[in-house]
Amino acid sequence: MPLVPPDPPLSDGVVTLRPWREEDVPSLVSCCGDAEIAAFIDQIPQPYREEDARVYVEHASAGWNDGTEAAFALTAADGGEVLGSIGVRWLDPEQGVGEVGYWVRREARGRGVATRGLQLVARWTLREVGLARLQLRADERNAPSRRVAQNAGFTEEGTLRSARFNARQRRRVDFVMYSLLPGELA
């Protein structure tokens, strides 16, 4: 069943979340070429090319259409500059469990935009979409991503030890698991 993007887009007056568009391809290429993003998200090809960005935009659109994923461009509230990305995929639709992931371009880090975007998508998925649990995994070594989860009100549940191999960093990754439930929304 298709998932309908929020209309109007999610916004708190500082940041906006909207579906990815073809005109975002140059921003995606610029952002995803960042070594820090690529280090923690090793599924992002390096070097990141225009064709990779086009494939991602198509994949993001397909996720909305098949109801399995909601991929948002995180932008300034005026709809301008792409600041990052936030996406939710449905892990267990019957049980109402989704997982969120995010990244923020280098120039926007440290300004609270990831926390704001995460709070927006959490409220939408837990209140509007009806998820019973929104979870996220952050690499134990990725302190900024862990701070975003904590600042957005997510509860640290524990560590998934040696949960994945990061080929780019050539190491097994321990993920810290966080969750947020509807009753915990601010």
Structure, explained:
The chain has 186 residues and is an alpha+beta fold. The chain is built from five helices and eight strands; from the N terminus they run E-E-H-H-H-E-E-E-H-E-H-E-E. An eight-stranded mixed beta sheet has the order 1-2-3-4-5-6-8-7, sandwiched between helices. A hairpin with a 4-residue loop joins strand 4 (82-92) and strand 5. The mean pLDDT is 94.
Strand order of the largest sheet: 1-2-3-4-5-6-8-7
What is the terminal separation in angstroms?
Answer: 30 Å
Task: Indicate the mean pLDDT.
Answer: 94
Radius of gyration: 16 Å
- The number of E-state strands comes to 8
Question: What percentage of amino acids are in beta strands?
Answer: 25-35%
SS-based structural class? alpha+beta
In DSSP terms (H or I, runs of 4 or more residues), the helix count works out at 5
Q: Sheet with the most strands?
A: 8 strands, mixed
Secondary structure topology:
Layout: E1 10-11, E2 15-19, H1 25-32, H2 35-40, H3 50-66, E3 69-76, E4 82-92, E5 97-104, H4 113-129, E6 133-139, H5 143-151, E7 155-166, E8 171-180
Parallel strand pairs: 5-6
Antiparallel strand pairs: 1-2, 2-3, 3-4, 4-5, 6-8, 7-8
Helix pairs in contact: 1-3
Care to give the gist of this entry?
The chain has helices at residues 25-32, 35-40, 50-66, 113-129, 143-151, and strands at 10-11, 15-19, 69-76, 82-92, 97-104, 133-139, 155-166, 171-180. The chain contains five helices and eight strands, in the order ββαααβββαβαββ.
